[in-house]
Amino acid sequence: MKEISILGIGTAVPEFRLDQADTSGRLTEALRYNPNSARWAKKIFKQCGVETRYTCEPNLLQTAEHCRYFSQSNQEAPSTSDRMATYKRESVPLALQAAEKALSDAKVDVSDITHLITVSCTGQFLPGLDAALTQQLGLAANVNRIPFNFLGCAAGLKAVCLSRQIASSNPFAKILVVCVELCTLHIQPSSDREALFGASFFGDGASSCVVGVASEQQHPIFQLGNDHSILLQDCADEMKWEVGNHGFDLYLSPNIPKLIGTWIPEQVAHLLDGGPKPELWAIHPGGKGIIDALEEVYGLTAEETRPSRTVLRNYGNMSSATILFVLDEMRQELANRGAGPTSGLSLAFGPGLTCEMIQFTYQGVAAIQETKLDETYV
Questions:
Q1: Does residue 30 carry a pLDDT above 50?
Q2: Cα 72 from Cα 121, distance rounded (Å)
Q3: Which UniProt keywords are listed (predicted)?
Q4: Among 284, 323, 321, 315, which residue's Cα sits nearest to residue 178?
Q5: Which of 2, 14, 208, 361 would bridge 10 by S-S if both were Cys, CB 3.0 to 4.6 A apart?
Q6: CB 225 within 8 A of CB 369
Q7: Mean pLDDT across the stretch 6-13?
Q8: What residues form DSSP beta bridges with 119?
Q9: Terminal CA-to-CA distance of the chain, rounded, Å?
């Protein structure tokens, strides 16, 4: 049986760009009557590893006085209903853009797609994203639609793992995964440290990939191997995401990097099953501390964590959509240096705490050429 691979990747971001230094300055101005919060916000904005992010909400680029999402603004903060209306309007075009790029990159026609997995935790509406994309992409009306809703940052990689499992039982399956997250819609008009921390590094974006067995016309990017999912015990309160009156309220414990560094190595060892340490590490940049923790535990070099840090720096944490940005960044780096087949491991973390992980192999130019030669003489 031919190997199951990621055949194409597409990413997209909204048009509005948030410069970290500028956003920090405007937020500090909004907190001028609460100097302790202002100092803390300025510190965390500077240290979180983000330089730019993107948002679908132009009001977030307004002055402190006119930004409805900032504390002590003269305007009333958007309600959850307001934010969900923006999500419904903005999420579909962004998801569509990423999906079209992935289909083009994979050289797959919409008529070949047998399964559609849609992923999002920053908004909901019905009929949902899956129905909208089916119609606007022109997918078959009977395409198998699988919505992943409200599963957090790990859901994008979970969708990739599920895609591999589907394709392993049906070699003719072509699975389109589409993730879209509008995280900035949930910035809170609050001076609480938890709210300010969440406001410091989340961004908006969409990503997509096609998973299946490559045809003669297709070049696999990442061959997918074994996957593993674990729900860590007694960690449910470390990461919480609940619906509030002004969007979704996020809580991230400062203990998360330490917990990941303590408990995840055992799970990685279980997946590797005595095999060698991977050469590539596609780590979901849920925060700078998570990358730091895994870098320390595994003795990773700056080169090995560069794709994750680059995505965090340029886009922030886009929740479920982020991991495909990391894999795309990694793909581009490897292609630029003409790398051959290289083993890798991808990890993503979400509420629970849960961890999703999967082994992969970058196929490389050398692997593609070798495959062509083999096919020529069969």
A1: yes
A2: 27
A3: Acyltransferase, Transferase
A4: 321
A5: 208
A6: no
A7: 98
A8: 148, 179
A9: 16
- Give per-residue pLDDT as tens, 259-283: 999 999 999 999 999 999 999 999 9
pTM: 0.93
Given this model, what pLDDT does residue 73 score?
59
Backbone angles phi, psi at 16, to 5 degrees: -90, 125
Using an 8 Å Cβ cutoff, are 1 and 170 in contact?
no
| Domains located in the chain, CATH noted | 222-374 (3.40.47.10)
E strand residue ranges, 134-274 = 144-149, 174-182, 204-213, 222-231, 239-244, 247-252
Whole-angstrom distance, CA of residue 214 vs CA of residue 135: 25
* Residue that the structure tokens 């997209």 belong to: 12
Name the average pLDDT for the chain: 91
Contact 221, 336 (CB under 8 A): no
Asked if pLDDT for residue 225 goes beyond 60, the answer is: yes
Assign 239 to helix, strand or coil: strand
Cite the DSSP H helix spans in 226-363. Answer: 256-272, 288-298, 302-315, 322-336
Tens digit of each residue's pLDDT (9 = 90 or more) over 328-338: 999 999 999 99
Residue whose C-alpha is closest to residue 340's, from 369, 376, 360: 369
Q: How many residues does the chain have?
A: 378
